[in-house]
Amino acid sequence: MDIYLVGGAVRDTLLGLPVKDRDWVVVGAAPQQLLDQGYLPVGKDFPVFLHPVSKEEYALARTERSTAPGYKGFAFHAAPDVTLDQDLARRDLTINAIAVSQDQLDAHGNFDPRTVRLEDPFQGQRDLQQQRLRHVTDAFEEDPVRILRVARFAARFSEFHVAHETRDLMRRMVTRGEVDALVAERVWQELARGLMEDRPARMFEVLADCMALGHLLAELPADGAVNVTLDRAAACQAPLTVRFAVLALGMPDDAARLQVCTRLRVPTDCRDLALLAARERAAIDGSAVQEAPALVQLLERCDALRKPARFRELLQLCAILAVQPGTTDLSAYPPLARLAMVLSISQSVATDAIARRVMAAGQSGPQVGAAIQAARIAAVAAGLDTLPPSDR
What is the domain range of residue 300? Predict the structure, then answer.
């Protein structure tokens, strides 16, 4: 039984990047051998085990073949006679098809790139050096999710380019309708991960270049106008909700946004922020000249007092959309600090005491709400009076 470190941990070590997690492949073993050593089985479709101590994943070397058009199923073969090269051959990109034997690793699973002996049958190290994303074999075309994975890796390693032969293969897959067979969950999973990379615009550029973007996101204009703002959101370390909202606001209207969210089963928090921003962005942009009553009403429309975290994301989103290209200094967007202060003041109003006082006077319901709103308006007005005249 031989064990190898494979995939992202090897790739990132060779690139001098931190290793986030480790995947292992076991060659020459049967499932019972791992069970006898205390490994815990977790795989349903193929044998994957958790190490009894580290809980890292160990998979038996396997081969696979597509059993239906598109991404609908694969037949796996995992047995002691499957070689390491056969296992590496099923992987997506050559840079992910490099392995290092466990006996070359230190106690923490690390290795020295200067002295290690690599198992690299598909010249992945050369592609790393030449900053190239290249598919391993033509088996790539059996899984259309790999089109999205290539685009996501382009967003992560933005200085890398897609090999011409890989781009051509991706185009042929699109022409055959392979991406149309993808299930929504897989599309969203890869899009979401790509949006969270350092250069998300590269993902959409690669998808457009291989003609997949029009199939996956037909609602998004093909001019790529949203790409600069996407990269700015990434540079500002914006969360996924904000980055998706940037993408969604590049679509023509709410009908298109809802269509995408429904089709891809986009999480509710991402959908809701995008729709809220489409409705309230103009009001937020103009809030720098609004008085206390309009500002409190804006908070109420945004449900900011119940969902302050979402409101702060909305402010960050509007700032990202408004600041000059090339800058990540969101403080230059006046509504950001102003509305953050308005929210803080409104949150400080003692609503329980107001409600008790109003109810003690024999009133309830709308009268309580009106009294609380009036108190917030008065508090916000007093807060604005403390600002310099130019900021009121």
Answer: 281-391
